[in-house]
Amino acid sequence: MDSNLSQLPAASVLPEGAAMMRIIRMRRLVGGIWRRITLSCTLAGVVILLLLGFSIVNDAFGAVAVQSKVELAQLTGGRALEALSRTELLALLEANVRTRVLRALDRERPLAMRDAADLRTIVATEIIQPEIVGVYPLSDWLFRREAITTELKAQHPRAELRFRSWLSAQFLGTAMSSQALEAGIRTAILGSCWMLLLTMLIAFPLGIGAALYLEEYTSVCPFDDRSRLGRWLNHLLSRAATLIQVNIYNLAGVPSIIYGMLGLAIFVRALESLTSGRMFGMASAATANGRTILAASLTMALLVLPVVIISTQEALRAVPSSLRQASFGLGATRWQTIWRVVLPSALPGILTGAILAVSRAIGETAPLIVVGASTFILTDPSGPFSRFTVLPIQIYNWTSRPQEEFRAIAAAAIIVLLLLLLITNASAIILRNHMRVKRSSS
Amino acid sequence: MNGEPACVIETRNLQINYGSFCAVKGVNLSIEPRTITALIGPSGCGKSTVLRSLNRMNDLVPGARVDGEVLFYGANLYAPEVDAVQVRRRIGMVFQKPNPFPKSIYENVAYGLRINGWRGTKASLDARVEAALRGAALWDEVKDKLQQSGLALSGGQQQRLCIARALAVEPEVILMDEPCSALDPIATLKIEQLMSELRQHYTIVIVTHNMQQAGRVADYTAFFLMDHDRAGQLIEYGPTSQIFSHPRDARTEAYISGRFG
């Protein structure tokens, strides 16, 4: 062999001297180009994210031009609405509201019995009637204030331009309204929280259980493989496990609308007595059709189940088999090994999967539309058998309206949705890190 | 005929298959109490497979099948009424790579006791843990940091922790699968010294790649080699001094003298 090597014309095959240096320079150049390409990919991603953030913030804050049908100053002679007494407010109503409307309001609840705050609201909605005549994004308010002011003066001379943060405590704390100025997302936030909670309660035990079985038990051949039948049954079982495994991967990629159809057929229609709460005697007329939080959560649990199973399996696979062997070697049963050794080691990984699942569930819209989320609900959800709406549905609904002010509140709702996502993920990550630290130190 | 009272473990015509592949066949070994028996041979000759069949760890390998008999004090470990869990409690195992649980040193040792249904008081558990750690010559090094993670110890200490963990459930036999192959020479020396001490109370079977190690610690040595089908076979078994100085089989001599393997 040595003689063969020395016979090779080495210099002509591998460059030396100046040729070698030239080729090294070339190789470094190519490497540098690739480094810049990867850098620009990263930068492109960052720029896109920043643009997204900007467009949301730009819409969620900004200016609004409000024009009242009757000027407050004219109405009260320059005094603030809060300064008026109940009798003065009542007098205002008598003088300015048509008797038919007044009578209707009186039938609802006698005017004489209403307090000042209530009367002020009626004055605002019935007499002053503020109306949005223009919505301007943050960038216009900051950089084009002159232009929009003159434009507004020309079109609506009486309109008042003022800054408005659509994302406000009032927005978070009030229920739905058909008026963008008064609309809030409390019902949607509560609906999202309820749905998320139930989804997790259903999907995590099911998903983790299935992953444990597939990962820890399917390798056990339960039948005696000395006999032909036993061998055949073992073979059949392992084939079935493979089949299930492949289909779980496929299910993870099924479009979410399909899950919505499934949820509609099974949870809303077929299991209506369960999901409407009739089975437990808790149904009301409003939820009798099964379009409840429970139906939505069951659908969403189905949707995230493959994600939970797959990520739990990955986490279980990452537990070194030497730990399992050590446990078995001491006389532990399989379940003792799983419960005391495998699961504690896999828990941080399982939590990572849970984060993925929650992130997916929190933003899904399509299946919930099919399952029947309502878009206009004035009462808070009170339990699994309530009618419900969730944040993404609300956003979807608002963005599809033609009025610009609804686009603004949709942007504000998006910020809330992202914050909710951030909070759930952050708490899961903190919990996971806490667990990791505890395990490595104790 | 029943197993002779003189031997703890006896294999009779042991054959182990993985699926259709025959890993070892025709193994007849008898292991005497309070001795160290070394299983040596080149890679892939089935010595680890034989070792793992002695406490039914092969049950955990899908497709593994054991034929023949493994007698433990005369009773077949593979009889249908025998539970593998009970076997492994009485025949402990130490693995090639130190594999302490990601728990505290204390919990590592207490683990075997807890899973086997320890009913004693906290104080008696403490005493048992201490005894096991002393037995593994680790107590003096860890007595002040029992609540620290077992993973924070050095490789050699981790392996002795694993031995302590095995000792805690008071097995009668300890199987060691190349326990020093991941350790440096000094840690190896400590484990070897420990094995010599443990021999006074326990029967030890060790798989080793290191022939010098077998020569240093083992009372008996079994030499395995695969045949032309790649199935492992027991070639020669006898007192270590005889195997190393006067091997009866030419293949044993060739291996021992370093001509192959």
How would you portray this structure in words?
The complex is a heterodimer of chains A (442) and B (261). Helices cover 70% and strands 5% of the residues of chain A. Chain A has 442 residues and is mainly α. In chain A, helix 11 runs parallel beside helix 15 (293-317), helix 16 (321-329) packs antiparallel against helix 17 (334-363) and helix 17 (334-363) packs antiparallel against helix 20. Chain A is flat, with a radius of gyration of 32 Å. The two termini of chain A are 57 Å apart. In chain B, helix 3 (105-115) crosses helix 4 (122-135), helix 4 packs across helix 6 (155-168) and helix 6 (155-168) packs parallel to helix 7 (185-198). In chain B, the strands form two sheets. Chain B has a six-stranded mixed beta sheet with strand order 6-7-8-3-9-10, sandwiched between helices. Chain B has ten helices and ten strands. Chain B has a domain at 9-100 and 173-256: Rossmann fold. The relative contact order of chain B is 0.19. The chains are: A mainly alpha (442), B alpha/beta (261).
Counting DSSP H or I runs of 4 or more residues, the number of helices of chain B is 10
CATH superfamily membership of the domain at 9-100 and 173-256 in chain B, which one?
P-loop containing nucleotide triphosphate hydrolases
- Name of the CATH architecture of the domain at 9-100 and 173-256 in chain B: 3-Layer(aba) Sandwich
The radius of gyration over CA of chain A amounts to 32 Å
Q: Main beta sheet of chain A: strand number and arrangement?
A: 3 strands, antiparallel
Query: Order of strands in the sheet with the most strands of chain B?
Result: 6-7-8-3-9-10
Give me the Rg of chain B, rounded.
18 Å
The largest β sheet of chain B comes out as:
6 strands, mixed
Q: How helix-rich are the residues of chain A, as a percent range?
A: 55-70%
Strands of chain B, total number:
10
**How many distinct domains of chain A?**
2
The most extensive contact between chains is: A-B, 28 and 33 residues
**Structural class estimated from helices and strands of chain B:** alpha/beta
Give the integer mean of the pLDDT values of chain B: 90
In CATH terms, what is the fold-level topology of the largest domain in chain A? MetI-like fold
Instruction: Report the top-level CATH class of the largest domain in chain A.
Output: Mainly Alpha
Instruction: Give the overall shape of chain A.
Output: flat
